[in-house]
Amino acid sequence: MKEFLKRKNIEISVRRYGIDALGAMAQGLFASLLIGTILNTLGKQLGIEFLTTAGGYASACSGAAMAVAIGYALQAPPLVLFSLVTVGYAANALGSTTLSGGSGAGGPLAVLFIAILAAEAGKAVSKETRVDILVTPIVTVLVGVGLASLVAPAIGTAASAVGGIIKWATIQQPFLMGIVVSVVIGVALTLPISSAAICAALGLTGLAGGAAVAGCCAQMVGFAFMSFKENKWGGLISQGIGTSMLQMGNIVRNPWIWLPPTLTAAITGPIATCLFHLEMNDPASAVASGMGTCGLVGQIGVYAGWAADVAAGTKAAITPFDWVGLVLISLVLPAVLTPLIALPLRRMGLIKDGDMTLR
After folding, report:
1. pLDDT of the residue at 283
2. pLDDT at residue 103, as a whole number
3. Hey, how many other C-beta atoms are within 10 angstroms of the C-beta on 234?
4. How confident is the model at residue 232, as a pLDDT?
5. Beta bridge partners of 280
6. Are 226 and 261 in contact (CB under 8 A)?
7. Tell me, what's the pLDDT at 285?
8. Alpha-carbon Rg of the chain, whole angstroms?
9. Could you say which residues of the chain have pLDDT below 50?
C-alpha cells in the first residue's frame, strides 16, 4: 500500500492537506469570489454594469475555482484536475445549504474536504486502465458528487452552527470575544494556513467579522511597520498589502517577533467591537473578514457591507465616525502600537536588528 500511495503521489499528511490544500483553496477563493466581490462593488458604486456582470460570473465560479486549486496543490493529473470543476461546483452548492434546507455557511469547508477525497480517488485510478480518459473523470466526478450529496449539507449545518455561536458570543461579550477572534484569526493569517478560508467556512460576519479584520490588519500592518528598518518600502508593501506570512521563517527562528503584532490584535479587536462597532456585513461572502489589508479586500468588504446596510435601510448612512474607525483599526493603530510594544523587547535583546529581514 505504501508503494502504491507513493507511486500515485498520494501523501496523507497534515502539511499536504492542512497547509498546501487549504492555502491553495484560499487562492482559488480569492481568484473567484473575492475578485468577483471587488468588481461587483466597484461596478455598483461607479455605475459600470460590465464590472457588475463580470463580478457575478467570477463569484458564481467560486466552488469550481477552489476545487481546481486544491487539485493543483495535490499535484493531480490533468483529467483529475479538470473533473474537479464539477466536484467543486456541487460541493459548494450543497455545502451552502443545511440539512433543513436553509442557507448554510459550509460551502468552502465542504469543497475542501470533498475535493481532497475526490482528487485522491481520481489519482488512485489515473492511468491504471486502457480507457483512462473515461475511468478517471467518472471516478473523480462520482466520488465527489456522491460525497457532496451525502455530507455537504451536514457540513453546512455544522459550519453555520459554529459560526453562529461565535457571532452570538461576540454580540454577548464584545470585549472578550473581540480579543479572542482578533488574535486567533490574525495568528491564522500569519501561519501557513488560510484565515480567509476559515472565515468563509464559518461564515464570520457582523461584529465577529469586524474583529477578524482587526486581527488580520494588526499582523500585516504591524509586521510591515515593525520591520521597516530591515525591509524598507518593499517590505512595507509586500507585508502591508500582501501578507504577514512572509515573516513565518523569521518567526520560527525567533518567536518573540510575533508577540507585538499579536498583542496589538488583542488591543484593536475589542476597540473594533466595543468602540467603533466595526462589522463585516459584506453580502457576498465572509471571506473578506480574513483578508485584512491584503489588496485592501477587508476594507472593501467593510465598505460593501455599509453600502448594503444603507440600501436595506438597516443603516441610516455611512458616517465620518465609521471611516475614522476603519482607518484607525486597519492602519493607524497597528502601525503605531506594534513598534511601541516591540521597543521593550528590543531593549531586552529579545528582538535584534535583522530578526525580521525578509529573505
Report:
1. 60
2. 60
3. 9
4. 92
5. 206
6. yes
7. 64
8. 21
9. none
The C-alpha cell that represents 150 in the structure block:
451525502
Q: Tell me if residue 282 falls in helix, strand or coil.
A: coil
Q: Provide CB contacts within 8 A for 85, sequence distance 6+.
A: 64, 67, 68
Q: What number of CA atoms fall less than 13 Å from residue 3's CA on the CB side?
A: 0
Report how far residue 298's alpha carbon sits from residue 209's, in angstroms, rounded to the nearest whole number. Answer: 10
pTM here?
Answer: 0.72
All residues at 6 or more sequence positions from 255 whose CB lies less than 8 Å from its CB, including other chains: none
pLDDT of residue 108: 80
Residue 319 CB neighbours (<10 A): 11
What residues pair up with 322 in beta bridges, in sequence order? none
User: Residue 101: its pLDDT value, please?
Assistant: 65
Residue 105: DSSP 8-state? S
Cell numbers for 267, please give them.
488591543
Cell of 275: 468602540
**Contact indicator for 155, 97 with CB cutoff of 8 Å:** no
Q: Are 248 and 359 in contact, with CB atoms under 8 Å apart?
A: no
Cα–Cα distance, 215 to 232 (Å, whole number):
23
Per the CB < 8 A criterion, the answer to whether 200 and 108 are in contact is yes
Q: Give the rounded distance of the alpha carbon of 115 from its chain centre.
A: 17
Give the model's pLDDT for residue 211.
Answer: 95
Read off the C-alpha cell for 145: 458528487
Q: What is the pLDDT of residue 44?
A: 78
In sequence order, what are the residues at sequence separation of 6 or more whose Cβ sits closer than 8 angstroms to the Cβ of residue 62? 28, 29, 32, 33, 36, 92, 107, 108
Phi then psi dihedrals of residue 206, to 5 deg: 65, -145
- Sequence-ordered list of residues with C-beta below 8 angstroms from that of 335, at least 6 positions apart, any chain: 221, 222, 224, 225
Cβ atoms 206, 171 nearer than 8 A: yes
Determine the Cα angle at 110 with ends 104 and 114, to 5°. Answer: 155
The Cα 202–Cα 107 span in angstroms is: 9
